[in-house]
Amino acid sequence: MNELTAILESIPIDPLTGALAVPIYQTSTYRQEAPGVNKGFDYTRTNNPTRKILEDVIAKLENGKNGLAFASGLAAIDCVVKLLETGDEVLAVDDIYGGAYRLFTTVYNKFGITIKFVDTTNPENVSKAITPKTKLIWLESPTNPLLKISDIQKISEIAKKHNILVCVDNTFASPIFQKPLNLGADIVLHSATKYLGGHTDVLAGLVVTNSDELGEKLKYIQNATGGVLAPFDSWLIIRSIETLKIRVEQHAANAQKVAEFLQTRPEIKKLYYPGLKSHPNYDVCRRQQKLPGSIISFSLKEDTEENAVRFVTSTKIFKLAESLGGAKSLLCNPATMTHKSIPRERRISSGVTDSLIRLSVGLEDAEDQINDLKQALDKLSVTDADKKHTNHELYV
Hints:
With 396 residues, the chain is of the alpha/beta class. The chain has helices at residues 3-10, 49-61, 73-81, 98-107, 123-129, 152-161, 174-177, 212-225, 231-241, 244-262, 282-288, 305-312, 344-349, 366-378, 384-387, and strands spanning 66-70, 89-93, 114-118, 134-140, 165-169, 187-191, 205-209, 268-272, 295-300, 319-320, 330-332, 357-360. The longest helix has 19 residues, at 244-262.
């Protein structure tokens, strides 16, 4: 069956009315026939018909068995980390999302869960960093914001030898371009606020596993801690999933054109996009992702926060905003926005420089996007000598 057909067929028709759109069950509780005798629902924190449909759909999309929906991506991360105990250690990708960094280092650190940051683009680094305390390997692939690609299959093979769980944040790739569970990961996670929601109008997180044992543990934590997704927000994500494949493919097609334009510009020092052959993880990306996605990052030759601010306030189609993955093109300066919570020294060492710009390439016409970036780049001061040289350094 065609993947788009499979997605549409995975969303059920309401058996009571025949409604093609999933009903929103906006209820907090349910009538029971007798104590403990019900139709599978007793309280919406524990279960809700609209949320359950979303959880079943995302499980199918990721080729998993158990899906869970949360009030935000961070709430989803929180649930996964609560599988751990005091004294456990997490090996995490060094180029980690700022919110995850904050959660790991300032919240769970207080409870005796330690974190070690590793360059996971080389599986050997992961192997060498493992200790008897290591219980979880935390991957983003591609990473936020430097678009590093980790070999999920090789790292999962290493983890299994040591009985360590692997969780992959699949937000940037989406289940259309990458299925980490197929590559050996134990848990896959999404900030559904991004591509799965796709319209910058909902906050949500999703978790999927193909292990019934893990699924039961995560479900228990979800219910016990209560960070569940509301019925209406669940409906918004279900609605958006129907167009997910079409949207992300167009996003990626636009991003490839934008990246190829950006690599010709002398104002750019380093360009990060796994769809370019210059990317050191290009081959790994092609092997485990169908398409490289639609996030592009680059640093400027004049590597200052002031220069970055000049650029991000000069675009018109690309709107200056947090988040990504919506229909409208967005851009941000991670150093002062999404990754501000990471100490500067730590941020710089991981490659997130003061002038780094992150683009979320939207669904507008690619030529319009390119022209917008061109006029903003033209406003940056460059010397005549710079203008004569376009063979700048690409992703290191």
